[in-house]
Amino acid sequence: MTPKDIIQLLDAHCICGEEHLQRNVRNAFAADLMSDVLRVDTSEMLLITGMANLQVIRTAEMSDIPFILFVRGKMVTPEMEALARENDMVVLTCPQSMFKVCGELYKAGLQPIY
Amino acid sequence: MEFNYNLEGGNFSRAGAASSEVKKLLKQLNVSPALIKRIVIALYEAEVNVVAHAYEGVMNVVFDNQTIRVKITDKGPGIPDIGLAMQEGYSTASPKVREMGFGAGMGLPNMKKNCDSLSIESQVGVGTTVTMITHLQ
Ligand SMILES: Nc1ncnc2c1ncn2[C@@H]1O[C@H](COP(=O)(O)OP(=O)(O)O)[C@@H](O)[C@H]1O
Ligand SMILES: [Mg+2]
Predict the structure, then answer these.
(1) What ipTM was reported for this prediction?
(2) Tell me: domain A3-112, CATH 3.30.470.10, correct?
(3) On the CB side of A52, how many CA atoms lie within 13 Å of its CA?
(4) d(Cα B88, Cα B109) in Å, to the nearest integer?
(5) Interface of A with B in 12-51 (CB under 8 A)
(6) What is the pLDDT of residues B57-78, one digit of tens each?
(7) What is the CATH number of the domain that holds B107?
(8) Ligand 1 within 6 A of B23 CB?
(9) What pTM, to 2 d.p., does this model score?
(10) B16 phi-psi bin (left φ>0, alpha ψ -120 to 50, beta other)
(11) Which of A33, A62, A64 sits opposite B16 (nearest CB)?
Protein backbone atom coordinates (compact mmCIF):
# COMPACT_ATOMS: atom_id res chain seq x y z
CA MET A 1 0.00 0.00 0.00
CA THR A 2 1.18 3.53 -0.73
CA PRO A 3 0.20 6.87 0.82
CA LYS A 4 -1.58 7.52 -2.47
CA ASP A 5 -3.71 4.39 -1.97
CA ILE A 6 -4.56 5.58 1.55
CA ILE A 7 -5.62 8.98 0.22
CA GLN A 8 -7.93 7.33 -2.31
CA LEU A 9 -9.35 4.81 0.12
CA LEU A 10 -10.18 7.33 2.85
CA ASP A 11 -10.56 10.46 0.79
CA ALA A 12 -7.71 11.79 2.91
CA HIS A 13 -5.95 15.09 2.47
CA CYS A 14 -2.19 15.38 2.03
CA ILE A 15 -0.61 18.12 4.17
CA CYS A 16 2.97 17.47 3.14
CA GLY A 17 5.25 14.86 1.60
CA GLU A 18 3.61 14.87 -1.85
CA GLU A 19 6.91 13.64 -3.31
CA HIS A 20 6.70 10.39 -1.30
CA LEU A 21 3.17 9.31 -2.18
CA GLN A 22 4.40 6.26 -4.11
CA ARG A 23 6.51 4.86 -1.27
CA ASN A 24 5.59 1.55 0.26
CA VAL A 25 3.72 1.50 3.59
CA ARG A 26 3.81 -2.00 5.00
CA ASN A 27 2.86 -1.61 8.67
CA ALA A 28 0.72 0.63 10.81
CA PHE A 29 0.34 1.41 14.49
CA ALA A 30 -2.56 3.36 15.99
CA ALA A 31 -2.16 5.31 19.24
CA ASP A 32 -3.03 8.57 20.91
CA LEU A 33 -0.47 7.95 23.62
CA MET A 34 2.99 9.04 22.47
CA SER A 35 4.48 7.04 25.37
CA ASP A 36 3.25 3.91 23.53
CA VAL A 37 4.65 5.03 20.19
CA LEU A 38 8.07 5.55 21.79
CA ARG A 39 8.16 1.91 22.86
CA VAL A 40 7.72 0.53 19.36
CA ASP A 41 10.85 -0.81 17.67
CA THR A 42 9.48 -0.75 14.11
CA SER A 43 10.47 2.37 12.19
CA GLU A 44 9.17 2.25 8.62
CA MET A 45 5.50 2.45 9.51
CA LEU A 46 2.37 4.56 9.41
CA LEU A 47 1.31 6.19 12.67
CA ILE A 48 -2.47 6.60 12.89
CA THR A 49 -3.46 9.03 15.64
CA GLY A 50 -6.21 11.27 16.93
CA MET A 51 -3.72 13.27 18.97
CA ALA A 52 -2.65 16.43 17.17
CA ASN A 53 0.17 18.46 18.64
CA LEU A 54 3.82 19.21 17.93
CA GLN A 55 4.95 16.32 20.15
CA VAL A 56 3.35 13.83 17.74
CA ILE A 57 5.70 15.06 15.02
CA ARG A 58 8.63 15.09 17.48
CA THR A 59 7.82 11.53 18.51
CA ALA A 60 7.72 10.45 14.87
CA GLU A 61 11.03 12.23 14.27
CA MET A 62 12.74 10.39 17.14
CA SER A 63 11.18 7.07 16.08
CA ASP A 64 12.05 7.44 12.37
CA ILE A 65 8.37 7.20 11.46
CA PRO A 66 7.94 8.57 7.92
CA PHE A 67 4.12 8.43 7.59
CA ILE A 68 1.47 10.00 9.86
CA LEU A 69 -2.31 9.92 9.44
CA PHE A 70 -4.41 12.20 11.65
CA VAL A 71 -7.99 10.98 12.07
CA ARG A 72 -11.23 12.74 13.08
CA GLY A 73 -10.33 15.79 11.00
CA LYS A 74 -7.61 16.94 13.37
CA MET A 75 -5.97 20.22 12.40
CA VAL A 76 -2.28 20.30 11.59
CA THR A 77 -0.76 23.60 12.73
CA PRO A 78 1.84 25.42 10.59
CA GLU A 79 4.42 24.58 13.27
CA MET A 80 3.62 20.87 13.00
CA GLU A 81 3.73 21.01 9.22
CA ALA A 82 7.10 22.79 9.24
CA LEU A 83 8.66 20.18 11.52
CA ALA A 84 7.17 17.36 9.44
CA ARG A 85 8.57 18.88 6.23
CA GLU A 86 11.97 19.34 7.83
CA ASN A 87 11.94 15.60 8.54
CA ASP A 88 10.68 14.64 5.10
CA MET A 89 7.48 13.06 6.41
CA VAL A 90 4.20 12.33 4.68
CA VAL A 91 1.34 13.82 6.74
CA LEU A 92 -2.26 12.97 5.88
CA THR A 93 -5.55 13.91 7.52
CA CYS A 94 -8.98 12.35 7.18
CA PRO A 95 -12.36 13.02 8.79
CA GLN A 96 -13.28 9.45 9.85
CA SER A 97 -13.01 7.98 13.33
CA MET A 98 -9.99 5.99 14.48
CA PHE A 99 -11.96 2.73 14.49
CA LYS A 100 -13.28 3.22 10.98
CA VAL A 101 -9.86 4.19 9.61
CA CYS A 102 -8.13 1.21 11.20
CA GLY A 103 -10.84 -1.14 9.94
CA GLU A 104 -10.64 0.15 6.38
CA LEU A 105 -6.85 0.04 6.22
CA TYR A 106 -6.68 -3.43 7.77
CA LYS A 107 -9.27 -4.69 5.31
CA ALA A 108 -7.22 -3.23 2.46
CA GLY A 109 -4.18 -5.24 3.58
CA LEU A 110 -2.16 -2.91 5.77
CA GLN A 111 -0.38 -5.03 8.40
CA PRO A 112 -0.20 -4.43 12.16
CA ILE A 113 3.30 -4.33 13.64
CA TYR A 114 2.37 -7.16 15.99
CA MET B 1 33.22 16.57 21.33
CA GLU B 2 30.96 18.18 23.88
CA PHE B 3 27.64 19.99 23.53
CA ASN B 4 25.22 21.59 26.00
CA TYR B 5 21.54 22.32 25.47
CA ASN B 6 19.23 24.21 27.79
CA LEU B 7 15.91 22.61 28.66
CA GLU B 8 12.84 24.53 29.75
CA GLY B 9 10.37 23.05 32.24
CA GLY B 10 6.72 23.25 31.19
CA ASN B 11 7.43 24.27 27.61
CA PHE B 12 6.08 21.42 25.51
CA SER B 13 6.57 23.18 22.21
CA ARG B 14 10.35 23.07 22.79
CA ALA B 15 10.43 19.51 24.11
CA GLY B 16 12.56 17.41 21.80
CA ALA B 17 14.58 20.25 20.30
CA ALA B 18 17.77 19.15 22.09
CA SER B 19 17.29 15.46 21.21
CA SER B 20 16.71 16.51 17.61
CA GLU B 21 20.08 18.32 17.56
CA VAL B 22 21.84 15.25 18.95
CA LYS B 23 20.15 13.13 16.30
CA LYS B 24 21.62 15.36 13.59
CA LEU B 25 25.10 15.05 15.13
CA LEU B 26 24.86 11.25 15.29
CA LYS B 27 23.79 11.12 11.64
CA GLN B 28 26.90 13.09 10.69
CA LEU B 29 29.01 10.55 12.58
CA ASN B 30 27.52 7.78 10.43
CA VAL B 31 26.11 5.88 13.39
CA SER B 32 23.64 3.21 12.23
CA PRO B 33 19.98 4.32 12.05
CA ALA B 34 18.88 1.60 14.51
CA LEU B 35 21.41 2.75 17.11
CA ILE B 36 20.56 6.42 16.53
CA LYS B 37 16.92 5.59 17.14
CA ARG B 38 17.70 3.88 20.47
CA ILE B 39 19.84 6.77 21.65
CA VAL B 40 17.49 9.58 20.68
CA ILE B 41 14.40 7.84 22.07
CA ALA B 42 16.13 7.58 25.44
CA LEU B 43 17.20 11.24 25.22
CA TYR B 44 13.76 12.38 24.19
CA GLU B 45 12.12 10.55 27.11
CA ALA B 46 14.61 12.24 29.45
CA GLU B 47 14.01 15.62 27.84
CA VAL B 48 10.23 15.21 28.12
CA ASN B 49 10.70 14.33 31.80
CA VAL B 50 12.45 17.63 32.46
CA VAL B 51 9.68 19.49 30.62
CA ALA B 52 6.95 17.50 32.38
CA HIS B 53 8.34 17.22 35.90
CA ALA B 54 11.08 19.83 36.49
CA TYR B 55 11.64 23.59 36.18
CA GLU B 56 14.74 23.82 34.03
CA GLY B 57 17.70 21.73 33.01
CA VAL B 58 20.75 21.16 30.87
CA MET B 59 21.54 18.29 28.54
CA ASN B 60 25.28 17.72 28.38
CA VAL B 61 26.44 15.44 25.56
CA VAL B 62 29.97 14.12 25.28
CA PHE B 63 30.99 11.70 22.58
CA ASP B 64 33.97 10.17 20.86
CA ASN B 65 34.12 7.38 18.29
CA GLN B 66 33.28 4.71 20.83
CA THR B 67 30.65 6.06 23.21
CA ILE B 68 28.06 8.74 23.77
CA ARG B 69 27.59 9.92 27.33
CA VAL B 70 24.62 12.17 28.10
CA LYS B 71 23.98 13.85 31.40
CA ILE B 72 20.64 15.58 31.95
CA THR B 73 20.70 17.73 35.05
CA ASP B 74 17.61 19.56 36.22
CA LYS B 75 16.41 21.86 38.93
CA GLY B 76 13.11 20.49 40.10
CA PRO B 77 11.21 18.59 42.75
CA GLY B 78 13.53 15.59 42.57
CA ILE B 79 12.44 11.94 42.80
CA PRO B 80 11.76 10.72 46.37
CA ASP B 81 11.81 7.00 45.49
CA ILE B 82 13.79 6.14 42.37
CA GLY B 83 12.93 2.43 42.57
CA LEU B 84 9.24 3.28 42.51
CA ALA B 85 9.69 5.81 39.68
CA MET B 86 11.43 3.11 37.60
CA GLN B 87 8.39 0.84 37.81
CA GLU B 88 6.34 0.56 34.63
CA GLY B 89 3.15 2.57 34.95
CA TYR B 90 4.21 4.69 37.91
CA SER B 91 3.57 8.36 37.11
CA THR B 92 2.87 11.62 38.90
CA ALA B 93 2.30 13.44 35.60
CA SER B 94 -0.23 16.28 35.64
CA PRO B 95 -3.43 16.23 33.55
CA LYS B 96 -1.78 18.75 31.22
CA VAL B 97 1.10 16.34 30.56
CA ARG B 98 -1.36 13.49 29.91
CA GLU B 99 -3.28 15.67 27.46
CA MET B 100 -0.06 15.95 25.46
CA GLY B 101 0.10 12.15 25.11
CA PHE B 102 2.67 11.50 27.85
CA GLY B 103 2.50 10.46 31.49
CA ALA B 104 2.01 6.72 31.08
CA GLY B 105 4.83 5.99 33.50
CA MET B 106 6.86 4.23 30.79
CA GLY B 107 9.57 6.83 30.24
CA LEU B 108 12.22 5.71 32.72
CA PRO B 109 11.83 1.99 31.84
CA ASN B 110 12.07 2.94 28.16
CA MET B 111 15.26 4.92 28.81
CA LYS B 112 16.75 1.90 30.56
CA LYS B 113 15.81 -0.29 27.60
CA ASN B 114 17.32 2.10 25.05
CA CYS B 115 20.75 2.80 26.52
CA ASP B 116 23.66 0.63 27.69
CA SER B 117 23.84 2.14 31.17
CA LEU B 118 21.41 4.40 33.03
CA SER B 119 22.04 6.02 36.38
CA ILE B 120 19.80 8.41 38.26
CA GLU B 121 20.72 10.62 41.19
CA SER B 122 18.15 12.83 42.79
CA GLN B 123 17.72 15.11 45.74
CA VAL B 124 14.19 16.00 46.80
CA GLY B 125 13.54 19.73 46.46
CA VAL B 126 16.76 20.27 44.52
CA GLY B 127 16.76 18.29 41.29
CA THR B 128 17.67 15.19 39.34
CA THR B 129 20.64 14.06 37.30
CA VAL B 130 20.18 11.30 34.74
CA THR B 131 23.25 9.83 33.06
CA MET B 132 23.03 7.55 30.05
CA ILE B 133 25.93 5.89 28.30
CA THR B 134 25.73 4.00 25.02
CA HIS B 135 28.46 2.40 22.93
CA LEU B 136 28.48 3.51 19.35
CA GLN B 137 29.80 0.29 17.77
N1 LIG C 1 13.40 14.81 36.00
C2 LIG C 1 12.47 14.45 36.91
N3 LIG C 1 12.17 15.25 37.97
C4 LIG C 1 11.24 14.89 38.87
N5 LIG C 1 10.54 13.74 38.82
C6 LIG C 1 10.79 12.91 37.78
C7 LIG C 1 11.75 13.20 36.78
N8 LIG C 1 11.78 12.18 35.91
C9 LIG C 1 10.88 11.29 36.34
N10 LIG C 1 10.28 11.71 37.48
C11 LIG C 1 9.28 10.98 38.28
O12 LIG C 1 9.26 9.62 37.88
C13 LIG C 1 7.96 9.27 37.39
C14 LIG C 1 8.08 8.25 36.30
O15 LIG C 1 8.74 8.81 35.16
P16 LIG C 1 8.47 8.18 33.72
O17 LIG C 1 8.73 6.72 33.79
O18 LIG C 1 9.22 8.96 32.71
O19 LIG C 1 6.91 8.35 33.54
P20 LIG C 1 6.04 9.66 33.21
O21 LIG C 1 6.98 10.76 32.80
O22 LIG C 1 5.16 9.20 32.12
O23 LIG C 1 5.30 10.00 34.47
C24 LIG C 1 7.33 10.60 36.98
O25 LIG C 1 5.94 10.57 36.96
C26 LIG C 1 7.87 11.52 38.07
O27 LIG C 1 7.16 11.33 39.28
MG1 LIG D 1 8.39 10.42 31.31
Answers:
(1) 0.95
(2) no
(3) 18
(4) 6
(5) 32-36, 38-39, 43, 51
(6) 999 999 998 999 999 999 999 9
(7) 3.30.565.10
(8) no
(9) 0.97
(10) left
(11) A62
